[in-house]
Amino acid sequence: MKRRAIYYFVASLGLASSCWIYLSFEPNHHFQGSELPVLSTPNYQAISSYPINQSNQPAQLNDDTKIVQSEPTAATIKVDKAEKYSSFNVLILGTDAIGNEDSRSDVIIVAHVMPNEKKVAIVSIPRDSRVAVDNVGYTKINHAHIVGELHGGNKEGTQLVLQTVSSFLNIPINYYVKTNFRGFINMIDEIGGIDIEVMEDIYLGESSLLLHQGMQHIDGATTLSLVRERHSLQNGDFGRQFNQSQVLKEIAVKLLQPKQLPKLPKLLSLVKKDISDTNFSDGDLLSLAWLLNGVKASDFSYIQIPGHSSLEMDPLVKNNVWYWIPDMDEVKKITQDYFQRE
After folding, report:
1. In terms of C-beta density within 10 A (0-12 exposed, 13-18 middle, 19 or more buried), how is residue 311 classed?
2. Average pLDDT over residues 150-157
């Protein structure tokens, strides 16, 4: 009788544990819990306070420059109860830091995740894009991170990029992931490298390696060289943005294959230690992996920001520099076509 009672007790514990896991991480429950975090929303006042032509009144980066100090937490947005779960936006930043030095954001990507469709839209923002940065003026978007860091450290660097991207695309940002170069290399190696189709022969100047056209299996160091290379590409920085999106897509596809599901808790813990900063909790990552389990490369859309290049005054360096000038009519259309889909 005692042995049977023990069996019933163990079985009850197992059932309770399974129910807890299901209720905690199953996406329909996890992401529908009445609120999603909102880290930044468009700041229209900041944008309208700067004239289109900044060359006549360049701002100066000094000790008196005021940077938004709010931390990327706290705000929330209600989710429609009628939906299984809402779509959400993730900012992905790759900084050019090797260690703990102040850094610019070398990779700026926004992913719009649509759980109902199991699809992801990836928008790559050129790092030289001329955008409004709060309390600075129109400057390169990759300056936002280092400006924030200089005035408040890592959190302010993150927050200023979040705010800048949110205002530029006119969208809220719900989550962010930030990694530096060293973490990026380790992350790729942890998942055993990635398979990627190289569209043209590419000489990777950073590693002195010729990457041939066609399908290639590459490790972390080679992947890093690939996502940083632009000088040997026919399309320059646009070619680099495309390669960055391909790498991101292949990482997601490899992580989210059905055969990886039992390994995900251990794999995500290994990957997360090399992410320098994120507001994703372990539960968020597990639930997201469950939600997108089995996603294919064809489930990803890739969008670049159209525009033109121009030589303009930069308020930080106080000199004329080359910018990518976004076509704001097209940016508005991108927001409508991709970020307003549920």
Report:
1. exposed
2. 84
